[in-house]
Structure prediction request, 205 residues.
Amino acid sequence: MVHRYCMASEEFIQGNEMKKQRESQCTQKTISLLSPLGTIQVSGCENGVHTIQILMDVAPAERSVKAPMSCVVNDSPAEMSPELQRCVEWLQAYFSEPQTTGSLPLPAFHHPTLQGDAFTSRVLQVLLRDVKLGDTVSYKRLAEMAGNPKAVRAVGGAMRRNPVPLLIPCHRVISSSGQSGPYMSGKGDHLKQWLLTHESQRLEG
Prediction:
């Protein structure tokens, strides 16, 4: 029994090492977008998107129900992988006509947080699959949906570790009291409210 356990442990360690090697071999490229929220940087490789960063370098644009929002490429590599291109197209649609994003293909994800069956990955995948545009969900309800009703704090931690905000809509997770709750560790609370209003206004329009 001990021998088999040691062998399994060695295989687990070797598997993790191989995974780290594969991740380190990724050649990532970064695209900069000018959006209503300011600069957004999207990084990824041939296999998928790794991260989306909202830099918060300007105040969010004022919303107008009639006028569409724009999201334009500001700086990009000479060659853009199909997955990065798909991500850019999704983000552009989200800001101009968010109601159309449900029919658009999402890019593949290649960040280690989103690989495997760890609780964080599971929560984020459930959020992506089940909480649609215009909807919100409480931290408690999302924990239940992910199969662990007692893991409310862990759900909050998963939202903080979300590597691809907007695509995986952690801004739709709110407090049970109905308050919007923190976003980007409390630094982007105003952006969370902006996003929720953006989605509800466009659906109403």
In short: The radius of gyration is 19 Å. The first helix runs from residue 2 to 24. The mean pLDDT is 87.
